[in-house]
Amino acid sequence: MEDLYTIKWHNGKVRILDQRQLPNDLVLLEISDHRGIVNAINNMSIRGAPAIGIAAAFGVVLSVWSAGDTDRPTFLEKANTAIKELKETRPTAKNLFWALEKMRLVLTRNLNRPLGEIKKALLFEAQRILDDDIKRCENIGKYGATLLPDRAFVLTHCNAGALATGGYGTALGVIRAAVAAGKKIKVYANETRPLWQGARLTSFELLEDDIDVTLIVDSAAGAVMREGKINIVLVGADRIASNGDTANKIGTYSLAVLAKKHQIPFYVAAPLSTCDFDLPNGSSIPIEERDADEIRRIDSMLIAPEDVKVYNPAFDVTPNEFIDAIITERGIARPPFKTTLSELKNKT
Ligand code: MRU
Which of 31, 33, 62, 173 could potentially form a cystine with 137 if both were Cys, beta carbons 3.0 to 4.6 Å apart? Predict the structure, then answer.
């Protein structure tokens, strides 16, 4: 993944690696207005909680970047409309709202400065969100690698890698750091129905980095655990409530239950920007429901009767009792997460 990047600001435009086309084609999208970012997030050209937040931040920059001689109220309206529209893209990832709040604060703090300076301040903030995300992932990797034994057999779900973040990844960052420390790591990647993030993205990313990865169908996880082939389950997160209840890609909860049954440690890796300290538990985490055709079809080919009813929640919530540790950029939280997560949040 060294020469590839998830998202970059380039000459007044945002470049995004179109994840819908992976692993077959490496296509860079060049986006010049915030609606383009709204679409890219909605259609999953860019996905993964931290990457969605970064894209949204750059979307706010784009909304005003080409505003020429506009008056101040029009300029501010453009930025505020973009923030509103970007907020309406994907409801579960906390990082989206976290990043947009940071952009809103920059806007408010710079309200009376010349418009050109407000633009620069917004760009500075978006770039900082991106750069800091990479550093956070590297720190998550550093802490998380201590949890992986030499000869770890790690099961992961969805894609919590460089593609889902500014770079390096959360769960896959832990794996990268462990491999860099000389540990022998073998990864099992769930293919992750219905959009195949495990098959298309995680296996692509790990192969690019020469990390040993084996793809399995989601429904094989229990059997593979029972065969003794897994000794760690490691996933990312879209939103973590203050008690540690964790929303992540649909199927994560089943893995956590299976891990408990087989006495396999279950770890979540995520930056603190994924934590929602306003939520006491996971019951009020908004769960995105996506289009029925994601399940009824593969690309345009129907694989089910066209009129069959479909329920397609994109995420589920794993209760904290199934989670052995949450790996953050400031250290590792262990139960009781209400205390340990808030200690990490306040740690300087
Ligand atoms: O629907 P997606 O592909 O955006 O879902 C992504 C996940 O569930 C990831 O595990 C999560 O966002 C963590 S990414 C570091």
Answer: 173
